[in-house]
Specification:
mainly alpha; 73% helix; 0% strand
């Protein structure tokens, strides 16, 4: 190694050490100690969400089912998994506001993925009365209908590979005239049964979960990390240290979002679960895990689907 290479490696080593200190890894063990059980359930629920995707797609059937059929959802599914995981890491490192912001992004990914997945299928488009009452929703449906008129075969392509819808909406995806707000999307998903069996899901999901997480995204003073310390531990106002109250709230919210995530996943995969015994058997084997993880709504929905 020549002198320049040696000097460069020394610079990289110094930068790595500096970044390692800034990440906050020294907070991970204290965080786990004070909130281990709840964090474990929330963490394992993230992995359960990812695992289910593979278990619910039959491997041996007379008519092979490809993941492409649900690919519009799986595009967001993959992203939601990693955002949820990264959110947890930020919370463990005592960066609570960042963790909550990432958790709201996770929730939005789940909602948007479910929305586009449903909209790619005829049976949902034909039962989208909530969108019909919304200017932006109507414009999306009209855009798709114009595409179908020019190329009718695209309808069947969407049924086989739902992610194909993203190619068609690319020209309008950034146009605000084609962008229903989150509340409208949540209401439409509720109408489609994607949140079943969560009662009054528009209120519980949009107002309570999404609304609460939005306070972190919009940086309300008492939701910043320093704001939390001013209200609760003013003597540690500038210390980025483990804060049990914030960590406990975070563990609860993460678990709540992952329970919702699995409910959405089960309802998106409902038609496959109901038809294929292999998918139903695999889901039946997860019942005990749902109980252990205290996934209340996921457990209820799974039991309904395996009857």
């Amino acid at each position: 190694m020549n002198h320049k290479q040696s000097e460069f490696e020394e610079i990289i080593g110094s930068a790595y050490y500096h970044i390692d200190k800034e990440i906050g890894l020294e907070s991970v063990k204290p965080s786990l100690r004070i909130e281990y059980k709840n964090l474990q359930k929330a963490h394992d629920s993230i992995h359960e969400f990812m695992l289910l995707a593979s278990l619910l797609l039959p491997s041996q059937t007379k008519k092979k089912i490809s993941w492409h059929r649900k690919s519009a959802f799986f595009v967001y599914h993959w992203e939601a998994f990693h955002h949820a995981h990264r959110s947890l890491i930020e919370a463990l490192c005592a960066y609570y506001n960042v963790a909550f912001v990432l958790l709201r992004v996770t929730l939005e990914l789940l909602i948007k993925g479910a929305f586009w997945e449903c909209l790619s299928h005829k049976r949902f488009r034909e039962e989208s009365q909530i969108l019909d009452k919304d200017n932006h929703g109507r414009k999306i449906k009209e855009w798709l209908e114009d595409i179908f008129k020019l190329a009718p075969h695209i309808k069947e392509e969407f049924e086989r590979t739902s992610a194909g819808i993203y190619d068609k909406i690319t020209p309008i995806i950034e146009d605000q005239n084609f962008r229903p707000d989150v509340k409208t999307i949540v209401r439409q998903l509720e109408h489609w049964g994607i949140f079943n069996p969560i009662p009054d899901s528009t209120t519980s999901i949009y107002k309570e979960i999404y609304g609460r997480l939005s306070a972190d995204v919009h940086i309300k003073p008492d939701r910043t990390d320093i704001g939390k310390r001013i209200l609760n531990t003013p003597e540690q106002i500038f210390d980025q240290e483990v804060f049990q109250k914030a960590l406990s709230e975070y563990a609860h919210r993460l678990h709540e979002v992952m329970d919702l995530a699995i409910v959405i996943e089960l309802n998106i995969m409902r038609d496959i679960i109901e038809v294929y015994d292999e998918a139903k058997t695999n889901l039946r084997e997860r019942i005990e895990t749902f109980k252990q993880l205290r996934l209340k709504y996921s457990l209820t929905r799974a039991k309904e689907l395996i009857k």
